[in-house]
TrEMBL record:
The name this protein goes by in its record: Branched-chain amino acid ABC transporter permease
Record field: transmembrane: 6-29, 41-61, 67-89, 101-119, 148-174, 195-216, 228-256, 263-284
Pfam families reported in the protein's UniProt record: BPD_transp_2 (PF02653)
Organism encoding this protein: Terrabacter aerolatus
GO biological process, one term: amino acid transport
Keyword vocabulary terms for this entry: Amino-acid transport, Cell membrane, Membrane, Transmembrane, Transmembrane helix, Transport
Amino acid sequence: MSDLVLLIVTGLGLGALYFIAASGLSLIYGLMGVLNFAHGAFITAGAYAAWLTMGALPAGWPVVLRLLVGVLVAVCVGAVVGRVVEVVLIRPLYRHHIQQVLVTVGLSLAGVAAAQGIWGSDPRAVESPAWIGGTTDMLGARLPDDRFVYVLVAGVLFVGLLALLHLTRLGLVIRAGVENRTMVEALGIDVHRTFTVVFALGGAAAALAGALYSQYAGAVSPAQGGSLLIYAFIVVVIGGMGSLTGTAVAAVAVGLVQQLANYYAATGVGDLSVVLLLALVLLLRPTSLKGATA
């Protein structure tokens, strides 16, 4: 019983990380129709921004305080990078989807190469608060404390994004712009500026995922964003392209399937199980590729 509790909690924590990484991807595609393969570069930028910030702060500061500042800086960096990418590269190509894919793929490769050129290919250790590496006794199992942090952050992000889309004027403008951009522009609303905000939000969420994933892995590396992006894409496709609620459910399912398969079958089978889950969803519900917002 204790093993099952441990697997469920660790699976939920892993699923929470996948959701944080996938939420920005889902938001950008669902509201703007942009399949952003550069999302992994945003994740990597956030991871390195948090790592560099923690290293630059005074060593006398508590690690948890430096981590919080690092995460905040990472989110800001992700938002800025997302905004710049949308304005400079994506905005001129809104009606050219093939070119969008090529540009974002190229940006992703360039991001990895830039990180390798500046910091090298080897992973760099990330400092973590002592309590993140600790455990809590619950239902006879020793549960890692960091998984609770990931679940809490993912929950706050999910509720915040839904509230933004459905309870604010900005969310109304975003959804209206998706449905009928011409009509919204005729009312004097700058849809391009609104979509820039969406891309910045997606970049911020990706950077947050990068900062938290570096704590999970205990290190930062140039390839980190790309590896997490693979699972983010799987989660978004399973949950329905553009559906935040579907993305959240799919992230939990992927995290649990991966953990349970690795434990009850063999190490490495979890990745195969996730791919099989994706194939099964596409066979039974191919409309998941179309998706819907929120």
